Each structure stands twice: as structure tokens, then as C-alpha cells.
Amino acid sequence: MNKNLLIVDDDTPFRERLSRSMIKKGFIVESFANYHDGLNRCQEVEFHYAIIDMRLEDGSGLELIKKIKQISPLTKSLLLTGYGNIATAVAAIKTGAIDYLPKPAEIDQIYDALTNSHETLPPPPENPMTADRIRWEHIHRVYISCKRNVSETARRLRMHRRTLQRILNKHAPRE
């Protein structure tokens, strides 16, 4: 069976860790940090699997999945995103992804989503994140997307700026 895997994610430490883990699981991995390099490689090599981050510095992971599906209809694509919601999940499936996982996702979750059939639902995670951890992760993602501007982040999150500053000064809650 073809086990060529394409990984496109601009988060370098995560991409490298995911690549190493998938190699250990028997995949032949090629990874790229941006949309254009990933797309160019798809036009040269047929991948059986693809793991794509939704937000890339130079394009949309949803668009990349759509292009991969056009180039290679049999490629099983998985969308990873730090901005999880129902609309994103629906969009991912409509563009041709076999599944969608919110970040941070465990390596085993990613592997199971790629290799399991749609006939069975994957089991719930053994150690799900706490509500406090999910809240903290969301606040930090919005903060980074606002280019670390506390006032803009507070406005988008509809919270007082000083409350946000206290949250940002604390360490992440334990999982």
C-alpha cells in the first residue's frame, strides 16, 4: 500500500515532531512550511495521505485540500486547525478532507483519523483538555492573531483589557 504522506504546516516544531512520528508509524513523509511548496510537490508526486494546517502564511489549507483533491482524487486529506468550530469542520469535509481535527491534536489521534474508515467513529480522547486549558489556548490564539496587541485582543474577545492582561501573565493551566 502507498504510504506517501504530505504534511503542510507553518508551525515548524509541530511539523517536525509530526513528521518524525509518522515516519516511525511507517509513512514516507515529505513536509513543507507553506501552501505553494506543498502544492508544487503535489503536482510532482502522488501522495496517498495529506495533513494540512488550515491557516498557512501564504494561503488557506482549505484551498490547498481542494487543489490536492483535483490533482489526486484518491489522496486522503486531514485538516488541522487551531480555530475549531462547526463551520470549519463542514467546510473541510466539503472541500474533500476525510476528517478535521482541532489543534493541539495528539499524534495517535492524527494517525487514527488518517487510517480509520468512516464506518466507525473514533473513541473519545482518554485525557481531554480541561475547559480552563481550552479557554487559555483560545485566548492565546486570538492574542497572536492580533499581533500581540492587548487592546485589540480584548476588543475581539469582548473582555476588559486588564482582565486579559492578568490571564496572559499566567502560565497555561494543566491539562
What does this 3D model show about the protein?
The protein is globular. It has helices spanning 12-24, 35-44, 61-71, 86-95, 107-115, 131-145, 150-157, 161-169, and strands spanning 4-8, 28-32, 49-53, 55-56, 59-60, 76-81, 97-102. The mean pLDDT is 85. 49% of the residues lie in helices and 18% in strands. The protein folds into 2 domains: 4-115, Response regulator (Rossmann fold), CATH 3.40.50.2300; 131-169, Arc Repressor Mutant, subunit A. The longest helix is centred in the C-terminal third of the chain and has 15 residues, at 131-145. Helix 4 (86-95) links the parallel strand 6 and strand 7. The strands form 2 sheets. It has a 5-stranded parallel beta sheet with strand order 2-1-3-6-7, with helices on both faces. Helix 2 (35-44) packs parallel to helix 3 and helix 6 packs across helix 7 (150-157). With 175 residues, the chain is an alpha/beta fold.
Order of helices and strands: EHEHEEEHEHEHHHH
Tell how many strands the DSSP assignment holds: 7
Structural category: alpha/beta
Mean pLDDT: 85
List strands and helices in order, with pairings.
Blueprint: E1 4-8, H1 12-24, E2 28-32, H2 35-44, E3 49-53, E4 55-56, E5 59-60, H3 61-71, E6 76-81, H4 86-95, E7 97-102, H5 107-115, H6 131-145, H7 150-157, H8 161-169
Parallel strand pairs: 1-2, 1-3, 3-6, 6-7
Antiparallel strand pairs: 4-5
Helix pairs in contact: 2-3, 6-7
